[in-house]
């Protein structure tokens, strides 16, 4: 099986990412709707938090700020994941078309890097508020050096793509 082009590994990966992107989008829309609904009907959000605790729903409970931040963090995590998958699919499309070193891919890779930073910031938020919203002690944040190095690699690759795109454009204009 070939790596790029029609009926290639890159094409199959793009299709798989598209399939996963549908479910991430459904999750993002659902969590955004739940978050917005908890702003309108706080008892609904309190019931969801009670369900997460494994307790029976108490209609007199009110939704605390940690619960709202937990729902917001879940929506943000889904949104950042959708953003990253969408950018990766566009990069794979340009690779399949034989034009990997285009300036649009530089912006796409930078967008992936920013999305990864957003996921890390959301994880930092959720590690503190999610346990508190279900009545547990806040978790310790474990700094994951591998994730941050991966983000750095993505930004370095974006710069490599920028230079590759500039070299390609220079080559095309040279007679």
Briefly summarize what is shown:
This protein has helices at 9-40, 42-53, 65-96, 103-133, 145-173.
Going by helix content, strand content and strand pairing, the class is mainly alpha
Helix tally?
5
Strand content is under 5%
- Taking pLDDT < 50 over at least 5 consecutive residues as the criterion, the unreliable ranges are none
Sketch the major β-sheet. none
SSE string: HHHHH
How many individual β-strands?
0
Query: Alpha-carbon distance between the termini?
Result: 36 Å
Radius of gyration, in Å, reads 21 Å
Overall morphology = elongated
* Percent in helix: over 70%
What value does the average pLDDT take?
Answer: 86
Characterise the protein shown here.
With 175 residues, the protein is an all-alpha fold. It contains five helices and no strands. The chain has helices at residues 9-40, 42-53, 65-96, 103-133, 145-173.
Strand and helix layout:
Layout: H1 9-40, H2 42-53, H3 65-96, H4 103-133, H5 145-173
């Amino acid at each position: 099986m070939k790596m790029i082009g029609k009926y290639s590994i890159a094409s199959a990966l793009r299709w798989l990412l598209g399939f996963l992107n549908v479910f991430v989008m459904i999750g993002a829309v659902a969590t955004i709707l739940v978050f917005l609904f908890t702003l309108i009907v706080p008892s609904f959000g309190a019931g969801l938090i009670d369900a997460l605790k494994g307790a029976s729903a108490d209609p007199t409970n009110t939704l605390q700020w940690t619960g709202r931040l937990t729902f917001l963090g879940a929506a943000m995590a889904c949104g950042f994941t959708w953003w990253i998958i969408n950018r990766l699919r566009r990069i794979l499309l340009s690779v399949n078309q034989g034009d990997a070193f285009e300036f649009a891919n530089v912006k796409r890779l930078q967008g992936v890097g920013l999305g990864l930073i957003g996921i890390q910031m959301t994880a930092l938020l959720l590690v503190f508020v999610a346990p508190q919203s279900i009545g547990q002690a806040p978790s310790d944040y474990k700094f994951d050096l591998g994730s941050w190095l991966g983000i750095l690699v993505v930004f370095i690759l974006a710069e490599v793509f920028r230079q590759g795109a500039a070299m390609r454009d220079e080559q095309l204009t040279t007679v």
